Amino acid sequence: MEIRKNAMNNRPHANLSNDEAAANGSAEIERATRRLVAALDALESAVERRRDADRDEDELANRIQALGADRSRLADELDGTLVRSRKLERANREIAERLDAAIGSIRDVIDAEDAS
């Protein structure tokens, strides 16, 4: 029993009156409540920042996906344009060769008429 009395006397509020102890306890509860509210506010802010970051990340992923789709579409269009360009170059060469042959034939006819 003596140990119990000594332990109670060693408590910080042991020498205070009941009113003083209640006031100190109330002040401690008030400080703890303020710390809890501050911690909850900080947690809410952190959750909101994380939500914003996730939303930004999703938006960025969507943009990257759209850019990838655009890139694929443009690559396909470029391939098609290159194929058409090569066909036009071949056709242009064939036409140039035919024109050269026609011009040569016309010169031969003119030269044959001049010679006669």
What can you tell me about this protein's structure?
91% of the residues lie in helices and 0% in strands. It has one domain (2-115). It starts with a helix and ends with a helix. It has two helices and no strands.
Number of strands: 0
Tell me which oligomeric state these chains represent.
single chain
Q: What is the general shape?
A: rod-shaped
- Average pLDDT number: 86
Q: Point out poorly predicted stretches.
A: 1-14
Helical content stands at over 70%
Largest sheet: none
Terminal CA distance reads 151 Å
Radius of gyration: 47 Å
Compact description:
This protein has 116 residues and is mostly helical.
How would you describe this structure in keywords?
single chain; 116 residues; mainly alpha
Write the layout of secondary structure elements.
Layout: H1 2-9, H2 18-115
